[in-house]
Amino acid sequence: MAKKSFRQALNDALHSEMARDPRVIMMGEDLTGGAGANGVKDAWGGPFGVTRGLLGAFGPDRVRDTPISEAAFIGAAAGAALTGLRPIAEIMFVDFAGVCLDQIMNQAAKFRYMFGGRAKTPLVIRATYGAGSRSGSQHTQALHAIFTHIPGLKVVIPSNPYDAKGLLLQAIRDDDPVIFLEHKMLYDTVGEVPDASYTIPFGEARVVRDGKDVVIIAVGRMVSVAEDAARSLAAEGISASIVDPRTTSPLDEDTLVEVTEKIGRVVIVDEGNPRCGVAADISALLADQCFDALKAPIKLVTAPHTPVPYAPNLEDAYVPTPDAVIKAVKSIVKR
Amino acid sequence: MSLIEAVTIPKWGMTMTEGKITQWMIGEGGSVTRGQEILEIETTKVTNVLEAAASGTLRQIVLAEGTTAPVGALAGVIADESATQAEIDAFIQSYADRIGSGEEGEGGASLPRKVSVAGGSLNLLEAGEPSDDIVLFLHGFGGDLTTWLFNQPVLAETMRTIAVDLPGHGDSSPVVGSNVVDEIAIAIEEAVTPIASGKIHLVAHSFGGAIAAALAARLPSRIGSLTLIAPIGLSKEMSRDFLTDFIAAERRRPLQAVLERLFADPSKITNDMVEGTLRFKRLEGVAEALSAIADAIAGDTGQKQSIGATLSALSCPVTLIWGDQDQIVPVPQQGEIPANATFVTIPQAGHMPQMEAAAIVNNAIIKTIAQAGT
Questions:
Q1: Which CATH code for domain A206-333?
Q2: Beta strand pairing call for B134-138 and B200-205
Q3: DSSP calls for A131-158
Q4: Looking at beta carbons, which residues of chain A come within 8 Å of B41?
Q5: Closest Cβ opposite residue B283 in set A196, A201, A254
Q6: Confidence (pTM)
Q7: 3-class SS of residue A252
Q8: Least confident span in A30-39, A217-226, B27-36, B126-135
Q9: Which CATH number fits domain A3-192: 3.40.50.300, 3.40.50.2020, 3.40.50.970, 3.30.1050.10?
Q10: A197 and B283: CB-CB below 8 Å?
Q11: A108-126, pLDDT tens digit by residue?
Q12: What is the mean pLDDT of chain B?
């Protein structure tokens, strides 16, 4: 089986689904190299290289560069979805969702409900997120908690190339608005990805690693942080399970409850800020449903309650690290 | 002179490069008899247990539970009481030096390769001594060549072996056509006969048994022996629910519940086995291909294939192996077993005795092949 990058896996999914379904269209900033400029078309393959080749394969009617106007083009995408197209709209940095939040939160998320089930909104909004690229507070946030909070949205956060392709294909085929979050620092990571198409259901967590002393729940890039921590812990005789929910909405509560009841010690690691975050949300669920099985408090390893710093050393201190996870694990395994 | 014996990570499966120790069944200082189960190791399929190669005392555990180490790495030391700690330390040190020197593990890791057949390609894994005769492993419904994880390496020690991914499974492309069993047999014949000119000793599991019978009917003079593990096609009864539930399960928990029915001891199933099966089942076209095979295996009134007559007509050795706790294809009645077949029942094994009781199955295969003579 071929090894492909996260970026290539997404590109695979976009190519194959656009070929299979003529209703799929794409829109976003710089997807095709800048429609208003005199430059080379598709020079970069999109701002992060994910959309390479799509303009040539499917033409400018289906792959559209937009002006810097999130409110307009996300609104247009929501409307296109209502009329029967299956749009994939890109928000270059998820932080820019602030500009179009009404279109996402009050429009797309509510259409099915407010139109009595007679409207469907098969919209995918792809966005990059996450720290590590020295891009500052307005280009680095992890806002999945905000989208998870809104009923009517599905929120998908792949952690590896295999999941990226399967989850994106599922997202495009899903009839509801899906926020598909791609961590910038994962694009170059590599893994085995089948050439054939496949979908991964939403609300289906992956058990990344089986262990018996503690379970580490992690999303997105934090899965590889958890894997690094688990390897160090194994060398010290502590055996950690790792579970990746893959989608925070819908959330695979059954798997999270099952592993918590089996193991009794939980650490949740999330790059989002701590207040009202996904880590706190999962923690409350487990504390309620697994109280008698828990042998220690649930530990949350998150970023601090600050904007993401621009200074490289401060950005590195901001993001949860394997050491922070190890420290949290050790604080509860001796109890 | 003290006897010091190494307990090392075994090589199970041609592509296995490392194993994870899940449990030491004896503590340090405990006494050990040769053949006693001492160490539980997790593979990509099931957890399996390593037996002690010598008697003595488990003097030292070198690799703790939860550790993953390369094949051949020293996990522990068995020695008799007369060995001094200094001798044990020196022994452990000599192992560290050996691994560090970059010496290849015995056999290295074979890699699977694809062979062109009409309509696509067949993936196969070859291992063992060069020879015109081969042992050909055919897995069952929904499986792949790694079914033979604990069997192919053992047979490869003395024979040339080939394990295939059946069409529509693993990395082999699916067949099209209304007679699924024949189409699959044709594809395998096309892939294998050019590369093996001598006798073909068939080892097949479950649905693979029907393919083996079809091959034996097509090429009677080429077949050296048949060892069939819980094959379909001998009795009317089987758990058709297993087939439909396997195809229907799209998520980890329901699929794990289905896979547990395959084993007498469900705790042997590893997370990797479930995840690997899920990844296979998700691929486009797999559900359709599996449904076509399921329809060929059983209908509302029971099994559709019938291999008894084909087996009875064979003059080569035929062995049937069954776990007595098989929930999928139950042990056939006396009258359903061909008179010329040797029947081996394995206690406390389910539908996958080649994994749950690998040593017994391997011995039965070797014995059957030996009966074929030259």
A1: 3.40.50.920
A2: parallel
A3: SSS---TTS----HHHHHHSTT-EEE--
A4: none
A5: A196
A6: 0.86
A7: coil
A8: A30-39
A9: 3.40.50.970
A10: yes
A11: 999 999 999 999 999 999 9
A12: 90
